[in-house]
Automatic annotation (TrEMBL):
InterPro entries: Peptide/Ni-bd, SBP_5, SBP_5_dom. GO terms for molecular function: peptide transmembrane transporter activity. It comes from Allostreptomyces psammosilenae. This is Peptide/nickel transport system substrate-binding protein. One of its GO terms (biological process) is peptide transport.
Length: 501
């Protein structure tokens, strides 16, 4: 095992690879399709998009890095449909609307050699609830945790039918008690996954070795060597030159320069949506919202801006959520009025490179339909407050539709409920609120999914949000990489099954 240079704070999660789709792709020096050279002892070299932003804190999005490295695990994982499946918990029971009991898997050891016990699990979960700030998955959520024998009981402050899904978040992974003894949480050598984190080089690199005592099927690769490469051109070059085996988030502009066999496009639960201000301005009129709806040419956006590497939106939820295709037929759409030169402000942000281009294309489409369009583009930090305050008539947003629990209801409530905290459309519609309330209180499974699709239909009938397209992320693998995960939720990348030929 490599010597530990510096122990950094973090917690993470590993999802079971068989629950999600996997695949592979390739590169070697001077070509795009051959096997990469230089990987020793079956170690996999990964070039990642973003360096740690919060010192690998488990209570930030850095937790997803450790999840993608398979170095720590949660009690529960999600299958492709978003339903909970056993991981460090083998089973669970809902005792009453607010109380759940989880049975902890036996025979598991942490990477520091200590055993996984109910007390250790309870301590890890309490650390998350007591953190400041709390993990995003616990925002507004009250949990009380107790351990008895080989079970952990979790009591929520309010009815929470999604508690098992909530416990699948990488921000609630379970580390050894020794991880929590200092001022910060230390993920180095304290997880339970098939790879043990042995070394972290600040925001530059990280190294993991195969954990020989893993409770499941052992890792097929000898280890993982991670480098953080924020520049997309440099990441693509690493794939071409053979200095990386797996590359995260290849930019659309670079994808055309790579052999198609070396890249995989993964549908993401992220939708580019045109939010229309229903609270003030011209789009208070449903007929003008309908005119904007009818003006949109989604195919032109996908082909012209995304070079065909996106999916035209049929609803708020896209192909990354397989059951969204079961949406019901809609009726009751408002007829469009003639805009007759109505002036509107169309805003977006520059942090995502494609959005200003989308804004320009939409401006042209809306003007052809008869609107007069004034465009506003700023950095997100300087435009979010005005968007939430209803300062714009229309706002283009790239929005994750499945948040940490793996369930779209939270996103819909946030964005379209009367009291939603991210209600850019200023929407307050009784039919929408009623549908959202039903979706929120329905237990997970087919009935909840049907209720979510009914809520989606209610939202779309208002034309407060016009979904444009669903994004894809482009991932690259070297030709000798086998079974890297292609995970729409971005929780998995290198799993126990991933290896080099």
């Amino acid at each position: 095992m490599r010597p530990t240079r510096r122990a950094l704070p973090a917690v993470a999660l590993t999802l079971t690879a068989s629950l999600l789709l996997t695949g592979c792709f390739a590169s070697s020096p001077g070509t795009d399709a051959g096997p990469a050279e230089g990987a020793a002892d079956g170690r996999i070299r990964v070039a990642m998009l973003q360096p740690p932003r919060s010192g690998l804190s488990p209570f930030s999005d850095d937790a997803f890095k450790l999840s993608r490295w398979s170095t720590a695990e949660t009690l529960v994982v999600l299958d492709e449909a978003g339903d909970p499946q056993p991981a460090l918990a083998t089973e669970w029971t809902r005792n009453d609307p607010r109380t759940w009991t989880f049975t902890i898997r036996q025979g598991v050891t942490f990477h520091d050699g200590s055993p996984l016990t109910a007390d250790a699990v309870a301590g890890a979960l309490r650390a998350a609830t007591e953190a400041s700030p709390k993990p995003r998955i616990l925002d507004g959520v009250e949990l009380r945790i107790s351990a008895e024998g080989d079970t952990v009981t979790v009591t929520t402050g309010e009815d929470d039918p999604l508690l098992p899904q909530r416990l699948s978040s990488p921000q609630l992974s379970i580390l050894a008690p020794s991880a929590y003894t200092g001022a910060t949480v230390n993920p180095v050598g304290t997880g339970t996954g098939p790879f043990v984190l042995t070394e972290v080089d600040g925001t530059t690199a990280a190294h993991l070795d195969r954990y020989e005592e893993y409770w499941g099927e052992p890792a097929r690769a000898g280890g993982i060597d991670v480098t953080f490469v924020p520049d997309g051109t440099a990441r693509a070059a690493a794939l071409r030159s053979g200095t990386a085996d797996i590359v995260e988030a290849v930019p659309v502009s670079q994808a055309a320069l790579l052999d198609e066999e070396t890249i995989t496009e993964v549908p993401m639960p992220r939708t580019n949506t045109l939010y229309l201000n229903t609270g003030s301005g011209p789009f208070r009129d449903p007929a003008l919202r309908a005119a904007a709806r009818d003006a949109i040419d989604r195919a032109a956006l996908v082909e012209g801006v995304y070079e065909g590497r996106a999916d035209q939106a049929e609803g708020l939820l896209g192909p990354a959520i397989p059951w969204a295709a079961e949406r019901p037929e809609r009726s009751g759409r408002t007829e469009a009025a003639d805009p007759a030169g109505t002036t509107i402000t169309l805003a977006t942000f520059s942090d995502r490179a494609e959005l200003p281009e989308v804004a320009t294309a939409l401006q042209q489409q809306l003007e052809r339909a008869g609107f007069t369009v004034e465009q506003v583009v700023r950095e997100y930090a300087h435009i979010e407050a005005d968007a939430l305050a209803g300062e714009f008539d229309a706002f283009i947003l790239s929005r994750a539709t499945v948040l940490d629990s793996g369930d779209p209801a939270a996103y819909m409530v946030s964005d379209f409920g009367c009291d939603g905290s991210f209600n850019i459309s200023q929407l307050c519609d009784p039919a929408v609120d009623q549908a959202l309330e039903l979706a929120e209180r329905t237990p997970s499974g087919p009935e909840r999914r049907a209720a979510i699709l009914q809520a989606e239909a209610a939202i779309l009938n208002t034309d407060a949000a016009i979904p444009l397209l669903h994004e894809r992320v482009i991932q690259g693998d070297a030709g000798n990489v086998v079974d890297s995960a292609k995970d729409p939720r971005e929780r998995l990348l290198v799993t126990a099954d991933t290896h080099l030929r």
